[in-house]
């Protein structure tokens, strides 16, 4: 099934696409009554397939541990942490966290490898493991929290704050939104795919002779599902940040405030299945396609071609005819020098009935700063522009 395109030039460039399909209508996603917060995003297109209260702050409970794992992945990537490092279980950590909530039952005075701590955190939601990792990797829990919050800001998680490394109730200091968790999941799966595969979506974990199961409601039951993390407290209700990948297409879902674990399991399985079955991914433009020009200020040339940094795609609901508007946008003129591959613009995709999303555009060529003569020529040309 292809897409018919009709391109209309206007300003920086606007494209209108007429889309139509002839399948049966699809069923509805989770109701607000069942899931007060719900979000489903297709990472292959960047498109939000469904959302309800996605910007509403809530208590993530143990979903907090996803940020702890992500920070550890970042530290492993840049060499600040090593999987074979071992960190001690201090007397204070043992007394506070041994047997408290979900736990690895770490022995007092033992020394635990980072690899085992991460397996415990991601597979059996080990509260004690998260604190030992935080203390060992950063020197203190407070220093680790600073790292978590710096990382959240760098990811654009502007409505999130972390006051604990494991999600234990902290009088509301820890909060997030579905939109922010989707950003975290995107970075987790795209920046660290090997570590993600190693630690998330595992059926369980055996440590010190004790085998425990993962409570992930979709891994092992939904095709392509591989995590990510459940969370529950009386204040938070039943939450889930989940993901599944099929044929190069990854969906991420967030559910929060669900009343029971059994309902969360049903909603999670139905939600991710709905996303795969009722939407199909269609190409718009291939990666590297030149889509227009950006004006350059004080450059050896007055413009630079813009190309797609990744493929532009759309997730289409079956049985519906949708009009899509594409717009090239950037803050300009762009100041020289410009490096080839520098992301300086975006292709905004607007489809009727769905939230807009964008695909990055990069400079297809380098543009050096103008010399004196070029500045004079550009100034004269500017008078006639």
The helical percent reads 25-40%
- The radius of gyration computed from the alpha-carbon positions, rounded to a whole number of angstroms, is 24 Å
| Structural class computed from helices and strand pairing | alpha+beta
Shape: globular
Textual characterization of the structure:
28% of the residues lie in helices and 31% in strands. The protein has 9 helices and 19 strands. The chain has helices at 65-77, 91-97, 114-124, 127-138, 141-154, 178-191, 193-199, 261-278, 372-384; strands spanning 4-8, 14-19, 37-42, 47-52, 86-88, 111-113, 204-207, 210-213, 225-233, 237-246, 249-258, 279-285, 290-297, 303-308, 312-317, 322-329, 334-335, 343-351, 357-363. Helix 1 (65-77) runs parallel beside helix 6 (178-191), helix 2 packs antiparallel against helix 4 (127-138) and helix 4 packs across helix 5. The protein starts with a strand and ends with a helix.
What is shown here, in short?
The chain has 385 residues and is α+β, with helices and mostly antiparallel strands. Helices cover 28% and strands 31% of the residues.
